[in-house]
Design brief:
Low-confidence stretches: 111-124, 406-411
GO cellular component, one term: plasma membrane
Radius of gyration: 22 Å
Order of helices and strands: EEHHHHHHHHHHHHHHHHHH
Mean pLDDT: 80
Protein name: Dicarboxylate/amino acid:cation symporter
CATH class: Mainly Alpha
Number of helices: 18
Strand order of the largest sheet: 1-2
Keywords: Membrane, Transmembrane, Transmembrane helix, Transport
Strand content: under 5%
Largest sheet: 2 strands, antiparallel
Number of strands: 2
Helix content: over 70%
Distance between the termini: 55 Å
CATH superfamily: Sodium:dicarboxylate symporter
Main location: membrane
CATH architecture: Orthogonal Bundle
Structural class: mainly alpha
InterPro entries: Na-dicarboxylate_symporter, Na:dicarbo_symporter_sf
Length: 411
């Protein structure tokens, strides 16, 4: 995506630096430009609910109609879900233990956006409260109130239902939803054009009000994130490959070196697909397996994002001094994993990050503070994402071979 012929990520990084400089020079007086950032956040928030709704329906309907995928398809989705939930665990446990957002209260940045129930009562949601609250009594009310967890559950159910319709009816409904989703994606892209201005104003306001402690906290978040990513990419995926495939972990990571380097440089899972295909081919994965698992993984398997989104949510909860209970962590985990089913094709991770914050009542106004360095985050989480796709492919290859051997023995 371009911003006046400059890569948008570069433009946002420049805006972040300029904003920090303005905040350092003018101090609290720079708050006069803060409304520009608030306009950007409100535009983004305006599109979150409808885009999450229609995007997840699109992703879920593929699951509903995957008749030809059979056992491998079911196990592939199961693998993606399991590894994503493990990744979410690290995304939650690291900021809870090391508290990168503690010691700095930025609630003045978003007083008007605080969830009043959290502020006034100091209550946190319990496990069963979260589970019961995830079921919408009225899905239309959930849409108007922005109840993200309820919207995701209804969207998944609705999308799978579309996938079960007869071909003629399914095609009609699918094309309509796809068209609406395309329009909303276009709107998100246009809103992102003003992201540099929003980031500049909010960064200036943050540094002008709190000094460079904000940047120090972001630096701590990045270090924690990199450690969590390394654990997910190597010990976790390495263990799955070692235990459940015919490929040694050493060979796997040797073959994945080139795709990982390319993923870091391009920050695109889809652009890395050809190299991932080649790596899987070198590891003995059949085309019938890799051609199903890898494109699907590039769309719905986001282990790197599964670390990122809960970590960011808890980081901002700490910055705002908002207490989170067990039920809140469950909600963060569910939204982080299930939200990736349909929102992977949306430009950047911004949409799902907003959705995760909204799910537990955390203000989204300070989110642009990490936009400037998001390109760096994105490079490394993409490498983890494609590593997860390839690990799934080699595991599914062994399962497929075991099934073929069983059939041959029976005959």
């Amino acid at each position: 995506m371009k911003f006046f012929k400059i890569d948008l990520g570069v433009a946002i990084l420049i805006a972040m630096v300029l904003g920090a400089a303005l905040g350092a020079i003018f101090g609290e007086d720079v708050s006069v430009i803060a409304p520009v950032g608030k306009i950007f956040i409100k535009l983004l928030s305006m599109l979150v609910v409808p885009l999450v709704f229609f995007s997840i329906i699109m992703g879920a309907q593929a699951l509903g109609q995957s008749k030809n995928a059979g056992k491998i398809g079911t196990l592939t989705f199961g693998y993606f879900g399991l590894t994503s939930f493990i990744a979410v665990f690290f995304g939650i446990i690291f900021p809870v233990l090391f508290k990168p957002g503690s010691g700095l209260d930025i609630s003045d940045l978003a007083k008007d956006m605080m969830d009043s129930s959290l502020v006034s009562k100091g209550e946190v949601a319990g496990f069963w409260d979260t589970m019961l609250g995830a079921i919408p009594a009225n899905p239309f009310r959930s849409l108007t109130e922005g109840s993200i967890l309820q919207i995701i559950l209804f969207s998944l159910f609705f999308g799978v239902g579309i996938g079960k319709l007869p071909d003629e009816k399914r095609e009609l409904v699918s094309k309509t939803i796809e068209g609406i989703n395309d329009v909303l994606t276009w709107m998100i892209i246009k809103v992102m054009w003003i992201a540099p201005f929003g980031v500049l104003s909010l960064m200036a306001d943050a540094v002008g009000t709190f000094g460079f402690d904000v940047l120090s906290s972001i630096g701590q978040l990045f270090i924690l994130y990199m450690v969590a990513l390394l654990i997910v990419a190597y010990p976790m995926f390495g263990a799955f490959v070692h235990l459940f495939s015919n490929v040694s972990a050493k060979k796997f990571f040797k073959e994945m070196m080139t795709p990982q380097i390319f993923a870091i440089s391009s920050a695109s899972s889809l652009a890395t697909l050809p190299l991932n295909y080649e790596a899987c081919d070198n590891m003995g994965v059949k085309k019938s397996i890799s051609s199903f698992v890898l494109p699907l993984g590039a769309t719905v398997n986001m282990a790197g994002n599964a670390v990122f989104n809960p970590m960011v949510a808890i980081f901002f909860a700490q910055l705002y001094n908002i207490p989170l209970g067990f039920g809140d962590y469950i909600a963060i985990a569910i939204v982080s994993v299930l939200g990736a089913v349909g929102t992977a094709g949306v430009p950047g991770p911004t949409l799902l990050s907003v959705a995760v914050l909204m799910a537990v009542g955390i203000p989204v106004e300070a989110l642009p503070l990490i936009f400037g360095v998001d390109r760096i985050f994105d490079m490394f989480r993409t490498a983890v994402n494609i590593t997860g796709d390839a690990s799934c492919a080699v595991v599914m290859e062994k399962i497929d071979n075991m099934g073929s051997t069983t059939v041959e023995n029976q005959s």
